[in-house]
Write a structure and sequence with these properties.
The protein has 116 residues and is α+β, with helices and mostly antiparallel strands. The protein has one domain. The protein is 42% helix and 12% strand. Helix 1 runs antiparallel to helix 2. The longest helix is centred in the N-terminal third of the chain and has 16 residues. InterPro entries: VWF_A, vWFA_dom_sf. It comes from Snodgrassella alvi.
Amino acid sequence: MYGSDRLDSLKHSLKLLVNKLRPLNKASIVSYAGSAGVVLEPTSGGNKAKILAATDKFEARGSTAGGEELKLAYKMTEHSKINSGINRKLLVTDGDFNVGISSDEELKAFVTTEKE
């Protein structure tokens, strides 16, 4: 699967996931196309239209600064963390990490450190 096919598949999969969210769930989106940035602040799963609108804006462009995106994701989710609940970060990409953290070993080390 190449180019827009991967992106279309990603958007479709996220739509299915978003439609399963409950109001107590929160979704946040950060982008790493070119540089890391916040696309959607923590938003209730009850506001599916807002979450889906953010996913519809996804575009494949630029380099993949996955490490910076992950750092931003961990920082942003600290504000919406459910202390006694299950907190997840979902990483989706249409390409390879090619800026900053770019190897499997670096990624594993980063996530392990953040988890603690």
